[in-house]
Amino acid sequence: MHAASPAPEPVTADAPGAITNPLLTQSWLDLAFVHWAVDPQDVEPLLPAGAVPDTLDGVTYVGLVAFRMHRVGWFRLPGLPYLGTFPETNVRLYSVDGHGRRGVVFRSLDASRLVPVIMARAGFRLPYLWSRMTVRADGDVIRYTSSRRWPGPRGAHSRIAVRRGEPIEEPTELEHFLTARWGLHNAFLGRLMYLPNVHPRWPLHRATLLYCDQDLTTAAGLPEHLGEPVSVLYSPGVPVRFSRPARPAGISTP
Fold first, then answer.
1. Domains and their CATH numbers in the chain
2. Of 42, 48, 122, 135, which residue is least crowded by CB atoms under 10 Å?
3. Which residues pair with 68 in a beta bridge?
4. Which Pfam family name is an example for this entry (predicted)?
5. pLDDT by residue (tens digit) across 192-226?
6. Cα–Cα dist 37/47, whole Å
7. Which string of DSSP letters, residue by residue, matches 56-78?
8. Which residues contact 1 (CB under 8 A, 6 or more apart)?
């Protein structure tokens, strides 16, 4: 008989630890979080081996997250002002592994800088894609556009606009579940990799979705008709630190 997997770690609004010697540093700014509820069976085949859908009350979620990446840097070096600064839009799923670690799985990460795209694809096997992108703010309205260039499907796109609302003093259980994620799962050289991250607690705002014309979720293998979003949030952003990938046993590499 196989030993039962441990229960998923609790969802915590604050990072569970600190990263004193980061592998990567960056800031995520002007984020729009758009989420749809989906059946876990629809996303389970899209997760890497060793990860299963993370659920809340029997439901899991697909996230479309658009934002500005700002000053990506290696180790303790200053972040890069040009190559490390660009718009990004990702399609993400929610995952938990056999050690109970909750995280996200990226199905696609569209970004407007080719060099970081190539580096992330080669170095971390992450599904980064090169796209034409803009992020523009006009008062409390933020607009995000994306049109894929390479490797495809060429022309996969998103056009999103949100109106920023009031700050959220006490996020709901669902809002914590969707945003308080302290690592990512990814297949690397045939094994499941977990890359931990830390950042301050999210400053979240209510947001109104003014329009959302996109096929990035379909291009990422999700059902074509997701229905209406169940959650739309905005955040001005946070500084982020990533640790080195964790071994399967959960111990960070030296």
1. 30-242 (2.40.400.10)
2. 122
3. 29, 87
4. DUF2071
5. 999 999 999 999 999 999 999 999 999 999 999 99
6. 16
7. BTTBEEEEEEEEEEEEEEETTSP
8. none
